[in-house]
Amino acid sequence: MSVIDAAMEYAEKLFRDNAGGHDAAHTLRVYRNAMRIEESEAACDRELVALGALLHDADDHKLFHTEQNENARSFLRAQGVKEERIERICQVINAVSFSQNRGKRPDTLEGKIVQDADRLDAVGAVGIARAFAYGGEHGRPPEATIRHFYEKLLLLKDEMNTEAAKKTAERRHRFMEEFLREYFAETEEPPREDA
Ligand code: ADP
Ligand code: NI
To answer: pTM (2 decimals)?
Structure first.
């Protein structure tokens, strides 16, 4: 089994009990997004992108009480990946997080791609679904989640690093705007009973 296939299996196991925004399906979508972006970027280390994407949430502080990429490192070590390579993969992973790196762009192309791939999963139809799932998990009503669109989701299209992600983000952005228009139309002007 390739290390990439093993990382997919590892992610499935690791996120098995997480129903919210960081389930295994999120990791697999980020991986697929990353592979698609990578195809349009020249001179890129494809395996580094793949492993960075598949392990990007493996030590997320909101989910795991690990320090210094312990989960990612021990998985990679067990796969026989060399220490030097593990360092590079962790560098990609640590450059990705939105909350930890507000405003800072990753130094490497591979980091930029995985960051874009993760952010793409927060916008569009899937981003809408995840936002309401997150709100529900935290006991918030839909109106409270709508605020998150203005605080984060609608800002993401201007923060993409790569051209390919920018294009996809713009399409997904328009879909969110359309969703919000419809949402406000339905909630602010309830149809009359006798209409
Ligand atoms: P990251 O993957 O960068 O760590 P987060 O953990 O902040 O991102 O978010 C995971 C998912 O939950 C995303 O889809 C995000 O939009 C959503 N989310 C985060 N905070 C909120 C919030 N306050 N309200 C609604 N959705 C949220
Ligand atoms: Ni993520």
So the answer is: 0.92
